[in-house]
Design a protein that fits this description.
Elements lengths: L1 E4 L17 E5 L14 E6 L14 E4 L12 H9 L17 H12 L5 E4 L17 H7 L5 E2 L3
Parallel strand pairs: 1-2, 1-5, 2-3, 3-4, 5-6
């Protein structure tokens, strides 16, 4: 099983209990990654870029950068991101002068599905069922992404 965690904060007592063959995937600042550092599992952290705003490298994780185009060996190839862009709904309201963009989670989920095609994926604390307790950048199409990801099983720990 692959678990992909949003950055919604939750108490450690609510953490999932991964099996040894599970894969855990965290995003950007990886708010809950420390809860799982002693679990004998493979852990990834997908950061949007190496800029400090997108979180430090997370110890015990394979740190990947969405926009390194695979240059460091674990990034997402730019052609894959371009393909995702072609199927994204860019028709949504945004502040003047700002850029529309996909979320790190949306891109990481798609890439994880590509490289681990036979593994089931469960999303942890994704979607509108989670209270707005994390920064939801207004430059993303949250409604489109929630609908696109609705077919995945979801777990809520917050």
């Amino acid at each position: 099983m692959i678990y992909i965690f949003s950055n919604v904060k939750y108490p450690k007592k609510n953490r999932i209990r991964p099996a040894p063959d599970d894969i855990l995937v965290f995003l950007n600042c990886a708010t809950s990654a420390a809860y799982y550092l002693n679990d004998p599992v493979v852990r990834f952290c997908f950061h949007r870029s190496p800029e400090p705003d997108y979180g430090p490298r997370i110890p015990g994780c394979i740190n990947c950068y969405i926009f390194d185009h695979g240059d460091r060996g674990y990034g997402i190839p730019s052609g894959f991101v371009d393909d995702l862009k072609s199927g994204y709904d860019w028709n949504y309201e945004i502040e003047p002068g700002k850029a529309r963009c996909m979320t790190t989670g949306y891109m990481a989920i798609a890439w994880i599905r590509r490289i681990f095609q036979d593994q089931p994926v469960t999303l942890v604390n994704f979607g509108f069922e989670v209270k707005n307790s994390t920064y939801r950048c207004p430059w993303h199409n949250w409604k489109f992404e929630a609908e696109a990801l609705s077919h995945y099983p979801h777990i809520y720990t917050e």
